[in-house]
Amino acid sequence: MSRETTQNSSAPESVSGGQAKNASTGISRRALLRAGTGATPVLLTFASGPVAAVPFGQCVLASSFVSVATFQSRNPNGVLGCASRNMEYWRAEAGKNPNNGPVSTALDKTVSAYLGAVGSTYDGATVRSVLLASPGGVATSGELGTLQHLLVMSLNLASGSMPTTGGFDPLYLQSIWSNYKSNGNHYIVAASGIDWVDAQIIGWARLLLGYPLPP
Asked: Which residues lie across from 46 on neighbouring strands?
């Protein structure tokens, strides 16, 4: 059973980690702020407790975010990175010829090996195939984009490229994917006021992976 399915009332949590190279993102500020008609703004404030600047290199749990303006005002760089390997690194590795090295072994595991079996059509797909499934590059929208970003964070955790303390660990990412699929591709944490669709989950993930908010 995943640890966070529909509710999480914990205060903001963060853990220290490494740095990722900044890269441009195809997600517009409008996509981050409003994921669709009638969607509420996301990623600007913390769910509870005092809102303070977040030092670069800390991972913040999704349940600690409600929406993106206060975060921006208190973090003018618009960057929150805790990973030393980003989306492009893992996609490039996936595109290389398979070998017997540890990176190849990690990429040839199935989606369910990292995120659990949730009845998704992707359960039995290899991580390599998912990362290469968007021919134009990294997907930044839709279910595929959400899955690619969760998988890259899972790969980072498995390789020591993101910290595994403070509640940010493989089981936590599994709980997000399970919650998302069981709620019709919405990530819902009622206690934190979260009802996120793909753009919002991806926006949070990209902040952790070191990408800046779009200008």
From this structure: 65
- Tell whether 195 is covered by a domain: yes
The number of beta carbons lying within 10 Å of the beta carbon of residue 50 is: 7
Cβ proximity of 203 and 27 under 8 Å: yes
CA 53 to chain centre: 20
Give the helix ranges, DSSP H, for the chain: 29-33, 69-74, 87-94, 102-107, 111-115, 127-131, 142-159, 170-182, 198-208
Tell me the DSSP string of 114-170: HH---S-TTTTSBHHHHHTS-TTSS--SHHHHHHHHHHHHHHHHHHTSS---TT-SH
- The answer to whether position 213 is within a domain reads no
- List the domain range (segments joined by +) for residue 174: 14-208
How many domains is the chain partitioned into structurally? 1
pLDDT by position in tens, the chain (length 215): 445 444 433 333 333 343 344 333 344 444 444 333 333 333 333 333 333 444 445 687 887 665 555 555 555 555 567 899 999 999 999 999 787 678 888 999 999 999 999 999 999 999 999 999 999 999 999 999 999 999 999 999 999 999 876 788 999 999 999 999 999 999 999 887 889 999 989 988 998 898 876 55
Q: Of the candidates 18, 34, 137, 139, which has an alpha carbon nearest to the alpha carbon of residue 80?
A: 18
Please count the other Cβ atoms lying within 10 Å of the Cβ belonging to residue 1.
5
Closest CA to 10 of 202, 195, 189: 189
- Please say whether the beta carbons of 4 and 176 come within 8 A: yes
